[in-house]
Amino acid sequence: MIEIRNVAKSYGKVRVVDDVTLTIARGGLTSLVGPNGAGKSTLLSIAARLIPADTGTVSVDGLDVARTPSDQLARRLAILRQDNHVTARLNVRDLVAFGRYPHSKGRPTAEDRTHVERALAYMDLDGLADRFLDELSGGQRQRAFIAMTLCQETDYLLLDEPLNNLDIRHGVELMKLLRRAATELGKTVVLVLHDVNFASSYSDRIIAMRSGRVVLAGTPDEVMTPDNLSDVFGCRFDVHTIAGKRIATYFS
Amino acid sequence: MKLWLALAILATAVLAAVSLFVGVSDVSLSALLAGTASPQAQLVLVASRVPRTVALILAGSGMAVCGTLMQMIMRNRFVDPSTAGTVEAARFGMLMVLIFAPGLPLVAKMLVAAAFALAGTFILLLILKQVPLRTPVLVPLIGIMLGAVINAALLFIAYRYDLTQSVLAWTMGDFSTVLRGRYEILWVAFALTIAAYVAADQFTVAGLGESFATNLGLNYRRAMALGLTLVAMVTASVVVTVGVALFLGLIVPNLVSLIAGDNLRRTLPWTAVGGAALLLACDLVGRLIIPPYEIPVGTVLGVIGPIAFLFLVLRRGARVA
Predict the structure, then answer these.
(1) I need a labelling partner for A1 at 20 to 30 A (CA). Which of A57, A104, B54, B315 fits?
(2) Its Gene Ontology biological processes (chain A) (predicted)?
(3) What is the ipTM of this complex?
(4) CATH 3.40.50.300 fits A1-76+155-252, yes or no
């Protein structure tokens, strides 16, 4: 369980996260949605101890993330931020293998290698495993980063805009994979998503943020209504039910 | 890969062997083996040639590994101790020792120089925090400027204390004065280079950036501090013994990175061997070009270095933006 209590964060005078209290239960796939600057990414980074909160606390399975030793958390929780610029020249397999660092501290065992090969296969990277990161396209690189995060084999997986740069096929495959991880392996997956329809189609729970606050939280059916969505995003939405899923259109 | 590394080590060993037998005094292998070498030749070999060759290997591998560490930690391809103000700061420390505590043993001198070198690197990091970095080339540019400022202060103070001559002796890598008893502190640099290899994975992870490193449970700041301390101490021990050969820490790490990547566990041995080989080769060139006189290895590298650096900026600047 991730418990976020009264978390706030300001950059200068701008309050990006404004007194958020939120509980994300163990197991299941939760999506954070909201307009640009709503504070989703900042909240996710605070939850994963990458950014310190100004006030408030976050705990994961009862461990305060600000105080728990980082390497202990790294075996429990993995995060991938958006916009990753890596200047180090690693090949894909080596990068993914560093996902095992919290477990093996750089001395990979045979078991670690199995994890690496499986993560490579999940992300459709077998053919690219020996290529250097700077020789890949943006989407391929994103898949390599996700594979590294998967390879960490943590109970909690936090991904900020994981669909960035991914083509439709790889986007859908990733969402299905994360869905399976939540359902079959009992993982807790938290995503920041841009596309409300991806959120609606694969999530157990959607949390909507605006101006640093949580404005809505519920199942896709509860959250995906025209009124809710226009309230969060500030534009007109139509919501349709297609094949049992709530799909929003916003082109009218 | 292992086989290639063995071959590279062999090639370096050949260079080292050649280095033992090149010079004004005639020292020949056959005479040594036959036991007919003159006592003078034996003395030259033991007191001058062997120390010189060992010093070249230790300093070359140390400075190349330092370059790699700095490049990973600062996440910039174009920094090394000589483009980050580190070398100048170490020299400044040496000058302070010379003025205020000239009687200190060499190890203590080295430690003071290392402390100054670390402070210099820290000042650069503080400056870089304040400057919007639009291009990666800006980092070494600021570093070189910082180095120039420290150097100006250094020369002014040295001039006032009439120490200009001593100061100039540390400004350029010159191995002709290396004798038995005056280079042994480089073994400290060697030990630290080995330490860097032991912690190689930490530096690779740190090179992925703070977010990745923290996510993987690495204490990023501690890894950075460890790396920069190693760099400062190796740089200082090279500065106090032979002076620093510029560009070595840029050329070798960048070439290794271009060919083999940045997984330091795998590439650091290449960097170390490459640094030793390049320094040995440049020193040999310097010795052979105008015998019986010598050109300091720093000057030879000073000719090759900028050309290689320009090549790297053009080649990498295009990609690593």
Answers:
(1) A104
(2) iron ion transport
(3) 0.91
(4) yes
